[in-house]
Structures are given as structure tokens and as C-alpha cells.
Amino acid sequence: MAILRKIPLFILLVLLSKWIGYAATSADTVPMQLLVSAFYCFGIFLSAWFVRKNTVNQQLFVKLNGHDYFVIVRNLFLQFVLYRLLRFLGVYLGLNGHSVNQAAILQHLQDLSVAELVLMFSFIIVWGPIFEELVFRGYVMNAFTKKKLTLGMGLVSALIFAYLHLQTLFISWDNLLVFVLYFKSGLLLALTYRQTKKLTASMAQHAISNVIVSIPVIIWLVNG
User: Fold this and answer.
1) Torsion-angle region of residue 172: left (phi > 0), alpha (psi -120 to 50) or beta?
2) What are the TM regions of this chain, as residue ranges (predicted)?
């Protein structure tokens, strides 16, 4: 019964993360982006409260140590090695490695002012990683099992994380590679959380990963 009571909270957090993520990519004015920032703050507060209520002795924002940084760097390296291997395999199999809305997002970014771009990248680098790690790692990996941070729940969190980033309802041949790439990222974030027992570690890895992915986009915007 305790697990059944947690399912509605889980659905609420997942839908909230999906909706706020969509709102963030759609916001095209500073007032709208500031409103999305407020939504992110609300989502972070709500998810942090749910994590504290549904976990035992869970400290949400803990200072990282040398071991944590080593795990982050190691898993980031593994993440990008796997990315290149999966992209190579995807090209060999004829899979599409681009999300359905990637071109639209790039066009959207190109139309934004400097202030709007700064706010948009704050969603990508700061607010998004904090909120998503609280939901997918903090809540999903803790709320439904007494044995904390199991690999099985890490797989579940990665599957949900990947599916919600597809921006489509069904997994098909056209978006299979994109799903696998997101699943790989979600799984390595789960491993970092499991190995460090700190959400701040997976948040940092998530943020750094998004920074690295954003660099080519920033270069494209500057040259464009």
C-alpha cells in the first residue's frame, strides 16, 4: 500500500518535469523565461520535499569530495566514449541520431536575444540538471524500494529519463538511437549517484555533460 501511495506522486513529478522542460524550450521572451525559472524553482522545491518525505536519511545537497570528482570524471569519460561508439554503430545500421525537434530548437535559439539565450542556457546547464536529478535519481531510485539505490531502479530511472526526452509518444526505428543515447546518459548518471550516494554528484555530471553538448551549439550561434 505504501508503494501505491507513492505512484501518484511519481506520476506528478514526471509530468511536471516533462511540462516544465517543454515550457523551457518554448519560452521565447525574457518574461516567459523568468516565469519558467519560477516553475523550475517550484519543481525543485516540490521534488526535494517529496524525496525527503520518501527516503531515509537522504541528504540532498552534500559537498563533493575527491572520490566524488573521480567518479564524475570517469563516468563522463565513459559516457562520451559510449556516445561515439553508439553513434558509429547507429550510422552503420542506418539509424537516425537526431531528435525530431533538433532543427526547430536550433532555429528557435538563433532567433533569441543575448539575454534570452543566457536564460535558455541556464535552463540547460543549471535548473534542468538539478530538477531532473531530484526526480529521476532522487525520487525514482529511492521511493519504490527499501534497499536503497539498487541497479534495477537505476535502470528504471534511465528508461523513464530516456523516454521523456524523445519528444514523441512511441519508440520507433527513427528515434531508437536517440532513445539509446539518452538511456546511456541516464544509466551513467544513476551509476554516479549509486557510487557516490550524493545527488550533487549526478547533478554536477549532468550539468557538465550539458555544458559539453552546448559548446558546439554556442559556437554555431556565434558564427551564425
Assistant:
1) beta
2) 33-51, 72-95, 115-136, 148-166, 172-191, 203-222
Residue 27 to residues 125, 126, 127, 183: CA-CA distances in angstroms? 16, 16, 15, 26
**Per the structure block, which three cell numbers stand in for 181?**
543515447
How do residues 172-197 score in pLDDT, each as one tens digit?
888 899 999 999 999 999 999 999 98
| Whether 190 contacts 154, CB under 8 Å | yes
DSSP per position, 64-95: --HHHHHHHHHHHHHHHHHHHHHHHHHHHHT-
Residue identified by cell 519528444 is 167
Burial class (CB in 10 A: 0-12, 13-18, 19+), 147: exposed
CB 99 within 8 A of CB 178: yes
